[in-house]
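job 3f2a | input accepted
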Amino acid sequence: MDEEQRNYFDRLFSPRSIAIVGISRTYSGLGGQFFLRNLKRAGYAGRIFPINPAAAEIGGLPAFPNIAALPEAADLAIVCVPAQAVPQALEDCARKGIRNLHVLSSGFRELGTPEGCRLEEDVRRIAERNRLNVIGPNCMGPYAPASRLMLWGQIPADPGPLAFLSQSGTLTQRMSEHAHFTGMGLSKAVSFGNAAALDSADYLEYLETDGETRVIGFYLES
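job 3f2a | predicted structure (222 res):
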């Protein structure tokens, strides 16, 4: 991993600003509002940019109609739009200069349909062409207690020496809670789902020299 890519990974796990693309105006379970609530609960201190074309304000924060309207290129974008809209969202992020993206959206290869596979190939192709660090799709994304990037989990983990990489979002959440109860804590965790762009080896290469990490655990389905 070259120095530029390592710097982008640093920002992925310790973002100074986060854009939530496709956040709804009201809470409706897993989605942009879910992540916004968890970031606030965790005491995340960075800037949060909700993106919704039909809202001027969401959760007490100014909302933006689209990615191009953001005042800066966020260090991390969380993409919560329907699967068919994800490729365009990635293109828009690339034009804005956003390199780190977490795609929550499902409806890709995991469906086993020609359309789902085509959409996932579009994600892979756009990420490769624009050198985007895309986590997912169909995943819960990154987690880093030290930077308060705690997007999920009923019981937030404390910082600690264990990193955990998993294709399963549910298992990653349970591991963050287990780390809390055992007092072990987490350095970083990633639920990476379908791994259309970044895969387990990419995170492992970064974590190899991460000063906060002493042990790395995996859950792989492939």
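job 3f2a | Helices lie at 3-13, 32-42, 86-96, 114-130, 169-182, 200-207.
job 3f2a | closed
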